[in-house]
Amino acid sequence: MTDAYEKTDVNVKKLFLVTLVVLVFVVIVIVAMNELFIFSKESQVYQAVLKPESAELRDLRAKEAEALHTYKALDAAKGVYQIPIDRAMALIAEEAFAEKMKDEM
């Protein structure tokens, strides 16, 4: 007769540890694949829908930029004029500075 049998029991601690490590690895891989899928999907949506600038938006921005950065007579009879926003802010700051200096004297 031969001794073709196990002389010791299975090491349950090692088996449990290996099973736990494999299970944790599988969960990590599943979570990583899910995140990769979500990132890829959002990237495709961004490239197809959100990134291209519409003609209407370009026209609106050009119109707003023109309104903010040009001189124009709104009502010449009443003396109402449009000036660029940078110039308007500088004038307001100068007036406030002049009033502050006048009050301090």
Report what the structure shows.
With 105 residues, the protein is mainly alpha-helical. The protein has two domains: 10-52; 68-105. It is 70% helix and 7% strand. The chain has a two-stranded antiparallel ribbon with strand order 1-2. Strand 1 and strand 2 form a beta hairpin. The longest helix has 39 residues, at 12-50. It is elongated, with a radius of gyration of 37 Å.
Q: Any idea what the radius of gyration is?
A: 37 Å
- The pLDDT mean sits at 91
Domain tally: 2
Oligomeric organization of the protein chains: single chain
Query: How far is the N terminus from the C terminus?
Result: 119 Å
Largest sheet: number of strands, sense, barrel closure: 2 strands, antiparallel
Label the overall shape.
elongated
